[in-house]
């Protein structure tokens, strides 16, 4: 069985620059692709049923973004085949590292190939955007400077770093953060060439640390070792290191109540690499 990567992302910064009439927020961010993530495998079937053989506890298969992505593509392209899907879940859910969105993107891009749908990357990204704001960046698979609601993407090359990502064991609801009255919503826009980690921030971090003390505790702990920040709307926090060895050394010291992993920041996602190696 061939296993396809479904990598995580980090938001190296997140500035909120406005709000649209439909309530969605305009943002600027760098989506950093990571070398670490889930994996998915697909067996194509001759009937048209879509089955997830490894369900996620607490998520009905019909709500699972993998099944929703596969069904969307099947309907969009009038595919008369189906598939059995296997998932190796490693990424914490609801952590701001995009696990669900990445799973959806892997399902869309790999099934596009295996079902021979022939959709372009752009068409797959547009389809993916209907499932979630973060799906397009995983479909394109490049570390990117993002604008709009996250769909307007420009590839950016970030000096290679190692990230220690820690999950504080609490879930932050994205909608709650974006609906918070005190969320700052008018950061000045920056241009892609102005991006530096040190001069940017995550505009959601203040609200999340106030509402979720465990995120504040984790940030306070991690900042002792390296520059640290929250990703997305939380709850995961990351610290930036120059070497894998330094990041691993701090991972060993993470208190048992939290879980972490070390990943390398990559310009191209492992999924895009795997797809191009197949061609
Ligand atoms: C902020 C990020 O975490 C950055 O990576 C993401 O863009 C959020 O992506 P996501 O979790 O896939 O979010 P979605 O499922 O698309 O949206 C969840 C909810 O967050 C709010 N939302 C999301 C994205 C955005 N740009 N503005 C918003 O206001 C909306 O209320 C929406 O109903
Ligand atoms: N395949 C999937 N993997 C993970 N979560 C899924 C999946 N399908 C549906 N979900 C639901 O989506 C929710 C958000 O999951 P996800 O891991 O994408 O969050 P996240 O890391 O906060 O993402 P983002 O950074 O895009 O906000 C989960 O709590 C779960 O209920």
TrEMBL record:
GO terms for molecular function: 4-(cytidine 5'-diphospho)-2-C-methyl-D-erythritol kinase activity. The active site is at residues 9, 134. It comes from the Bacteria. Gene3D superfamilies: 3.30.230.10, GHMP kinase, C-terminal domain (3.30.70.890). Pathway: Isoprenoid biosynthesis; isopentenyl diphosphate biosynthesis via DXP pathway; isopentenyl diphosphate from 1-deoxy-D-xylulose 5-phosphate: step 3/6. Residues 204-259 form the GHMP kinase C-terminal domain. Residues 64-141 form the GHMP kinase N-terminal domain. InterPro entries: GHMP_kinase_C_dom, GHMP_kinase_C_sf, GHMP_kinase_N_dom, IspE, Ribosomal_Su5_D2-typ_SF, Ribsml_uS5_D2-typ_fold_subgr. ATP binds at residues 92-102. Keywords: ATP-binding, Isoprene biosynthesis, Kinase, Nucleotide-binding, Transferase. It catalyses: 4-CDP-2-C-methyl-D-erythritol + ATP = 4-CDP-2-C-methyl-D-erythritol 2-phosphate + ADP + H(+). Its EC number is 2.7.1.148. Catalyzes the phosphorylation of the position 2 hydroxy group of 4-diphosphocytidyl-2C-methyl-D-erythritol. Belongs to the GHMP kinase family. IspE subfamily. This is 4-diphosphocytidyl-2-C-methyl-D-erythritol kinase. It comes from Alteromonas arenosi. The lineage of its organism: Bacteria, Pseudomonadati, Pseudomonadota, Gammaproteobacteria, Alteromonadales.
């Amino acid at each position: 069985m061939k296993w396809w990567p479904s990598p995580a992302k980090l938001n190296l910064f997140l500035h909120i620059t406005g709000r649209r009439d439909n309530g969605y927020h305009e943002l600027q961010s760098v989506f950093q692709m990571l070398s670490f993530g889930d994996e998915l495998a697909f067996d194509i079937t001759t009937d048209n049923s879509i089955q997830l053989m490894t369900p996620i506890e607490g998520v009905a298969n019909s709500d699972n973004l993998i099944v929703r992505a596969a069904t969307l593509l099947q309907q969009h392209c009038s595919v008369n085949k189906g598939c059995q899907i296997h998932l190796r879940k490693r990424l914490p859910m609801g952590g701001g590292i995009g696990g669900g969105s990445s799973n959806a993107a892997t399902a869309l891009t790999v099934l596009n190939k295996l079902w021979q749908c022939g959709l372009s990357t752009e068409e797959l990204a547009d389809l993916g955007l209907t499932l979630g704001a973060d799906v397009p960046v995983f479909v394109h698979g490049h570390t990117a400077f993002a604008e709009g609601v996250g769909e307007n993407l420009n590839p950016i090359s970030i000096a290679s770093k190692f990230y220690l990502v820690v999950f504080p064991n609490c879930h932050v609801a994205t909608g709650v953060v974006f609906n918070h009255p005190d969320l700052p919503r008018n950061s000045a826009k920056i241009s892609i060439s102005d991006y530096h980690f040190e001069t940017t921030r995550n505009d959601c971090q203040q609200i999340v640390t106030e509402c979720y003390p465990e995120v504040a505790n984790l940030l306070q702990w991690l900042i002792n070792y390296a520059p640290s920040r929250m990703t997305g709307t939380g709850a995961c926090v990351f610290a930036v290191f120059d070497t894998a060895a330094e990041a691993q050394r701090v991972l060993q010291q993470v208190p048992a109540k939290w879980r972490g992993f070390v990943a390398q920041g990559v310009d191209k996602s492992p999924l895009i690499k795997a797809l191009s190696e197949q061609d």
